[in-house]
Write a structure and sequence with these properties.
Length: about 350
C-alpha cells in the first residue's frame, strides 16, 4: 500500500538522480568560476615551446612563474599534464587532450574582434593571409585584384613566414587562410593544391659554371651550396633534398635562410649554387643574372597549397575571398597551374648580357 505521499520507489530514485545532477552542475559552475583562464594560455605556450624555460622566454616571464602556473593548473584539474624532470619533458594523455582544447579556445577568442567588426561594418571586413616567401602565381594576383574591385571596403594583411608557421597560424585561427608548401598534413585542416612549381639549381655570374652549356650533374657535386632551411629530407622541400642526396651533390653549405629573396641574394653574390623556383627567376635568367644548372629534364616538383581551417568562424569578407580563390582554381585548367610550362630545357645561349 502507498504511504499517502503519492511517491513510489521510482519517484525516490528519480529524486536521488536529480540531486546528483544538481551537485554535478554546481561543481561544474564552481570549477569554471574558479579557473584562471590565463593558466590555459600558459599551458598552451609550454606545449608549443616544448618546455617551461622556452615558454617563459616567449612570454617574457620568469621561469619559476611559468612553472608555478603549470602546477596550479594541474592542482585545479586534478590531473598530471606534463611529465617533467631532469632532461625530461613529455605531455601526458590528459595534457594532450587539454592542449587541443586550449588551441580551439584561443583561436575562437582571437577571432572575436574580427567577427564583431564584421557585424559593425556590414559588407566590409578584414582578410588575413599568411604565406611562404616564394609564392608567385597569377591565380592569387588576379583574385586579389578582382576581389578589391568588387569589395573596395575590405582590407587585407599579408604576412610572409615559413611554411610551418603558415600551417600553425591557420590551425590556431589567427589567419583567414594560408598559402605554402606542405610536408606533413595537420588533421582537421583543409588542403587544396593551388599550383605546382619546379625547382632548379642556379648560379650567379661570379660562379665559374655561369654560361656553360656542357654541364652535367657531376659538375655540381663539389660546388658550395646555399639553400632554404626546409631543404631537408624531413622538410617541405624534400624533393630538392632528395635530388641532392641521390645525385651526391654534397658541397659545403655556405648559407641558409627561410626567405627566397635572401637565397637569390646569396646566389647572385657568388656564395654558392642554390635551388630556386624556375618560374620565379625567369627574368633573372633572361637578363643574364642567373644561369640554370642540371638536371634539365626532370627538375624537382613541389605543390603549393591553399590551407584553410573548417573549424574557423570566418567573417563574410574572409569567406568570400576564400571562395573566390577556390572558384579561380577550379576554372583554371591543370596545365595552366604548372610552372613553368613547357620546361625550358638545357640553356643554349652563352652570350649573357653584362649586368652592372
Amino acid at each position: 500500500m502507498g504511504d499517502g505521499s503519492g511517491r513510489g520507489l521510482d519517484d525516490l530514485s528519480d529524486a536521488s538522480d536529480g540531486a546528483d545532477a544538481l551537485d554535478r552542475l554546481a561543481a561544474l559552475e564552481r570549477f569554471t568560476r574558479q579557473l584562471d583562464w590565463n593558466l590555459l594560455r600558459t599551458f598552451m605556450m609550454i606545449v608549443q615551446e616544448g618546455g617551461i624555460t622556452r615558454a617563459a622566454d616567449r612570454m617574457l616571464l620568469a621561469q619559476p612563474t611559468v612553472s608555478n602556473r603549470l602546477k596550479r593548473l594541474e592542482r585545479q584539474l586534478g590531473r598530471r599534464l606534463v611529465e617533467r624532470g631532469a632532461g625530461t619533458f613529455r605531455v601526458t594523455a590528459h595534457g594532450d587532450l587539454l592542449y587541443r582544447e586550449c588551441v580551439e579556445i584561443y583561436g575562437n577568442i582571437s577571432r572575436l574582434n574580427v567577427l564583431l567588426r564584421d557585424i559593425r561594418e556590414e559588407i566590409s571586413g578584414h582578410v588575413s593571409i599568411v604565406m611562404a616567401s616564394h609564392v608567385q602565381t597569377p591565380l592569387l594576383d588576379d583574385v586579389l585584384a578582382e576581389f578589391h574591385q568588387r569589395h573596395p571596403l575590405v582590407t587585407f594583411s599579408i604576412d610572409v613566414t615559413t611554411s610551418t608557421d603558415v600551417t600553425q597560424q591557420v590551425q590556431h585561427k589567427t589567419a583567414s587562410c594560408g598559402v605554402c608548401l606542405v610536408y606533413d598534413r595537420v588533421p582537421g585542416l583543409r588542403y587544396e593544391v593551388l599550383f605546382r612549381e619546379h625547382f632548379q639549381f642556379f648560379c650567379g655570374r661570379r660562379n665559374p659554371l655561369f654560361g656553360r652549356t656542357d654541364l652535367t650533374i657531376a659538375d655540381l657535386r663539389d660546388q658550395p651550396l646555399v639553400s632554404f632551411k626546409t631543404d631537408q629530407l624531413s622538410g617541405v622541400l624534400r624533393p630538392v633534398a632528395l635530388l641532392r642526396t641521390q645525385e651526391r651533390i654534397e658541397g659545403r653549405v655556405v648559407g641558409t635562410t627561410s626567405n627566397l629573396e635572401e637565397v637569390r641574394r646569396m646566389i647572385l653574390a657568388g656564395l654558392g649554387i642554390g635551388p630556386m623556383p624556375m618560374h620565379v627567376v625567369e627574368a633573372d635568367v633572361r637578363d643574364g643574372r642567373l644561369w640554370p644548372l642540371p638536371p634539365y629534364d626532370s627538375p624537382p616538383a613541389v605543390d603549393v597549397y591553399l590551407i584553410t581551417n573548417p573549424a574557423a568562424h570566418l567573417n563574410r569578407a574572409e569567406a568570400a575571398f576564400v571562395e573566390a580563390l577556390r572558384e579561380k582554381v577550379a576554372a583554371t585548367p591543370a596545365r595552366e597551374r604548372i610552372y613553368p610550362y613547357p620546361m625550358p630545357g638545357r640553356p643554349r645561349d652563352t652570350a649573357a648580357p653584362d649586368v652592372p
